[in-house]
């Protein structure tokens, strides 16, 4: 098992401890900042993917600023998970990492992770369930 740093774990998995919540359109319409997106691959320890997914999906409500949170199984790697997140701002994502529920998920999930794969930061523009940037 490869060693993972606390920062990598927090950045790729911390926010993954919580799931979808919706933010009122008025909160997105102030134009103060761009939405923040994160797509990351987590490599679970052999045979631990489903257990790790359960932790990532636990506590699925109430994450301030989370607009979308999707956990998906990789279709070609039986130990890989993809997490796709959209936040109202990068600051909301960063703030989520200090929440007790996220810290608990980190403690539970860390032993089940073999490492991380690709990680992409994005600037979401719109889509189903999101307010298009020109309407913000």
List the helices and strands and how they pair.
Blueprint (H helix, E strand, L loop, with lengths): L5 H8 L11 H4 L7 E9 L4 H9 L8 E8 L6 E8 L2 H7 L3 H10 L3 E10 L14
Antiparallel strand pairs: 1-3, 1-4, 2-3
* The CATH topology: Alpha-Beta Plaits
Taking the alpha carbons of the first and last residues, their distance comes to 44 Å
Query: Which strand order does the major sheet show?
Result: 2-3-1-4
The topology string of helices and strands comes to HHEHEEHHE
Overall spatial form: globular
Reported for the largest beta sheet, the result is: 4 strands, antiparallel
CATH class: Alpha Beta
Q: What proportion strand?
A: 25-35%
């Amino acid at each position: 098992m490869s060693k993972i740093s606390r920062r990598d774990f927090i950045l790729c998995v911390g926010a993954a401890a919580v799931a979808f919540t919706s933010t009122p359109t008025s909160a997105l319409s102030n134009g103060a900042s761009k939405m923040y997106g994160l797509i990351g691959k987590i490599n679970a320890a052999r045979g631990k993917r489903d257990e790790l997914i359960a932790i990532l999906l636990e506590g699925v409500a109430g994450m301030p600023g989370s607009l979308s949170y999707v956990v998906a199984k990789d279709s070609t790697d039986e130990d890989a998970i993809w997490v796709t997140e959209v936040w109202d701002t990068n600051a909301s994502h960063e703030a989520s990492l200090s929440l007790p529920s996220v810290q608990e998920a980190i403690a539970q999930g860390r032993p089940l992770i073999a490492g991380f794969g690709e990680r992409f930061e994005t600037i979401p523009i719109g889509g189903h369930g999101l307010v298009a940037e020109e309407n913000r």
